[in-house]
């Protein structure tokens, strides 16, 4: 929206400069010779001047209308109340290949960090698994369907994404469950 206003202002400036240049090139005189026999009459210059002024006025009106529209949109943005957003829960399942554990014992007695990857992603990820909730003996290069829960409001994640289920699976490749979600 602001780009449109800037473009219109630039056009108005160009038209104003054009009129000023025409007046200056004519030396303030309303008639000048094009060649020996033809002259621009006062009437022709005045018509062009009126046309330019009319175009400038039209552009100024458009700028005014766009400024009003911009102000209205800015007011709507200010009035937007985030409390009207609905809190949502997203539960989704994705399949991972277990690679290994990550040994990180810095005060995380109840958390197990596992390194996993997904089919055709070629990008290992680290997940934190609650040891007291999941007592799974992960096996290297085996696949696991991991179900996550994310709570968000609008586009904002409200809580840490939580693992709510882990199940070993025999599914491979395109058979694997890969529901869209945040991991």
Keywords:
single chain; OB fold (Dihydrolipoamide Acetyltransferase, E2P); 183 residues
Structural features, described:
There is one protein chain. By secondary structure, the chain is α+β, with helices and mostly antiparallel strands. It has two domains: 2-80; 87-175, OB fold (Dihydrolipoamide Acetyltransferase, E2P). 34% of the residues lie in helices and 27% in strands. It contains two helices and six strands. It has helices at 2-25, 42-79, and strands at 87-102, 111-117, 125-130, 143-153, 156-157, 162-169. Strands 1, 2, 3, 4, 5 and 6 form a six-stranded antiparallel β-sheet that branches. A hairpin with an 8-residue loop joins strand 1 and strand 2. Helix 1 packs antiparallel against helix 2. The longest helix is centred in the first third of the chain and has 38 residues, at 42-79. The two termini are 36 Å apart.
User: What is the count of helical runs?
Assistant: 2
Overall residue-averaged pLDDT value? 78
Helix content: 25-40%
The secondary-structure class comes to alpha+beta
SSE string, helices as H and strands as E = HHEEEEEE
What is the 3D shape?
elongated
- By DSSP, the count of extended strands is 6
Number of domains: 2
User: Could you say what the CATH architecture of the largest domain is?
Assistant: Beta Barrel
- CATH class call of the largest domain: Mainly Beta
CATH topology annotation of the largest domain: OB fold (Dihydrolipoamide Acetyltransferase, E2P)
Unreliable runs: none
**What Rg is obtained from the alpha carbons, in whole angstroms?**
35 Å
Largest sheet: 6 strands, antiparallel
β-strand amount: 25-35%
End-to-end span in angstroms? 36 Å
